[in-house]
């Protein structure tokens, strides 16, 4: 008789254990499904931003293949491009500072020449015109150099083909 009571107690215990675990399992399943959905949306957002980044970076166009570029490749090219732009920005800032110093020196020299005691009114007019011409000539040469640098950068990034002739 003791064994029947023991078996009955075990059955009752199993019934309550199974009944109490069922809601917890569905609750865990809901939490897991919700977590999976949140994680999927997070991955989708990251993937979308990586695609946007690949469209923004010049060297990073997504291939027409089924898989396209890897995320690591896109991020690597983006880092390279950012470093290149930082270096270019620093170089251009230094050139701008140098150009400002040269303009100031040039202006001081012009004033010294035009106020020199040996300058007549006619020679001052001629020197002033000559200074203007030289200033324009220097600007044209600077723009040609900058234009060539930009063309080389465009070629390097594949935006302008290598066969494109340079205007002279």
TrEMBL record:
Ranges of residues in domain BHLH: 30-85
Subcellular location: Nucleus
InterPro entries the UniProt entry points to: bHLH_dom (IPR011598), HLH_DNA-bd_sf (IPR036638), USF (IPR051732)
Database matches in Gene3D superfamilies: Helix-loop-helix DNA-binding domain
Matches recorded under SUPFAM superfamilies: HLH, helix-loop-helix DNA-binding domain
Leader sequence segment: 1-22
Identification of the protein by name: Upstream stimulatory factor 1
């Amino acid at each position: 008789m003791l064994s029947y009571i023991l078996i009955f107690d075990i059955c009752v215990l199993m019934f309550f254990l199974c009944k109490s675990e069922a809601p917890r399992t569905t609750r865990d399943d809901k939490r897991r499904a919700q977590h999976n959905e949140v994680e999927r949306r997070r991955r989708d957002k990251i993937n979308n931003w990586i695609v946007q980044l690949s469209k923004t970076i010049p060297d990073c166009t997504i291939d027409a293949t089924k898989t396209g570029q890897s995320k690591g490749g896109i991020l690597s090219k983006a880092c390279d491009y950012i470093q290149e732009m930082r270096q270019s920005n620093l170089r251009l800032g230094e050139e701008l500072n140098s150009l400002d110093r040269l303009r100031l020196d040039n202006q001081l020299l012009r004033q010294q020449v035009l106020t020199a005691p040996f300058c007549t009114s006619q020679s001052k007019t001629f020197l002033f015109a000559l200074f203007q011409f030289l200033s324009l000539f220097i600007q044209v040469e600077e723009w040609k150099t900058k234009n060539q640098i930009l063309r080389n950068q465009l070629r390097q990034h594949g935006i302008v083909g290598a066969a494109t002739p340079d205007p002279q």
